[in-house]
Every structure is written in structure tokens, then in C-alpha cells.
From TrEMBL:
Domain of life: Bacteria
Protein name from the UniProt record: SEC-C motif domain protein
Organism of this sequence: Psychromonas ingrahamii (strain DSM 17664 / CCUG 51855 / 37)
SUPFAM superfamilies: NTF2-like, Sec-C motif
InterPro entries named among the record's database cross-references: NTF2-like_dom_sf, SEC_C_motif, YchJ-like_M
Domain YchJ-like middle NTF2-like: 33-127
Gene3D superfamilies: 3.10.450.50
Length: 158
């Protein structure tokens, strides 16, 4: 885990994982805002931390979800873009785009997630998932939307 802790956090905070989401994942501190919870949940999806995902999911909204289902890696999460966020005293939302690879193709999950604050901690409830946008082809020389920092032609367009 020590090598992992020195890497840039998957949530795109520009901090190391050790300085960012790791303390949330090991429960030494709780996220102060719903955006911090959203970022830590994205990192938990990247690292397949089903226990964390399950425990930060509001019990009234879990349905048939289980830790095992939340631990399964079905796609390769690449990048998180926070579009807007608001935290109020007992609720909040985060609109984001999460880029992922599935069977070698790049996709974008666009959602406006709803959160509540209970017992001095934030919990994910549900979200409005936007339909996949048909934005056309990504120009080969543009930066790859996966967040790698490489040109699209040298990254996900391969």
C-alpha cells in the first residue's frame, strides 16, 4: 500500500492518495463536504473498496446492493471531472463526469448525485444519470478525456 499512497489520487485532487482519499478509506477522518465524499467514492471504485462504497451509501437507497457487487471491477475508471457542487447543512449534490474504459472503448458517466448528512457524516443517496452525450469524434491531437495528459491518439484512441 505504501507505493499506492505516493501516487496521485485517482479523484484528480492533485494530492497524493495518502494526503487525499486514503484517510477517508481507512476511516481516520470523515469527508467534510459531499464533494469530498464523491471524490473518495470515485477512488474507492478505482481501488475496488466495496466496504467503503457500501458504508457510504445511505441504507434507505441501497436496495439489493452488497459489498461483493460494489467490489467487482466491471470497468477501468480513468478520470473524474467535478462540474458543480453544493453542500448545505444536511444535504448537497455533486454533478460530475467519470470517464472509463469498457472493452477498450472510452465512455463517460455523467451524473448529478444527491447526498445527505446524518450523524455528522455524508452519505450518497441517489443520482440523476444524464444520457450519454453524442459529442462526435474526439480530435486525435486533443488531450485524452481520460485524464492521462497524453494526446487522444496516443492514449484511448489506440
Amino acid at each position: 500500500m505504501s507505493k499506492l499512497n505516493q501516487q496521485t489520487c485517482p479523484c484528480q485532487s492533485e494530492k497524493t492518495y495518502q494526503q487525499c482519499c486514503f484517510p477517508f478509506h481507512i476511516k481516520t477522518v470523515k469527508p467534510v463536504t459531499c464533494e469530498q465524499l464523491m471524490r473518495s467514492r470515485f477512488s474507492a471504485f478505482v481501488y475496488q473498496l466495496g466496504d467503503y462504497l457500501y458504508n457510504t451509501y445511505h441504507p434507505d437507497y441501497r436496495g439489493d446492493l452488497s459489498v461483493e457487487v460494489l467490489t467487482e471491477q466491471t470497468v477501468d475508471w480513468k478520470n473524474l471531472q467535478i462540474l458543480s457542487t453544493a453542500s448545505f447543512s444536511d444535504s448537497g449534490y455533486v454533478e460530475f463526469k467519470a470517464w472509463y474504459l469498457d472493452q477498450g472503448k472510452l465512455f463517460c458517466h455523467h451524473e448529478r448525485s444527491n447526498f445527505v448528512k446524518e450523524n455528522n457524516g455524508w452519505l450518497y443517496c441517489d443520482g440523476l444519470i444524464y444520457p450519454e452525450q453524442k459529442s462526435g469524434k474526439i480530435p486525435r491531437n486533443d488531450p485524452c478525456p481520460c485524464g492521462s495528459g497524453k494526446k487522444h491518439k496516443k492514449c484511448c484512441a489506440k
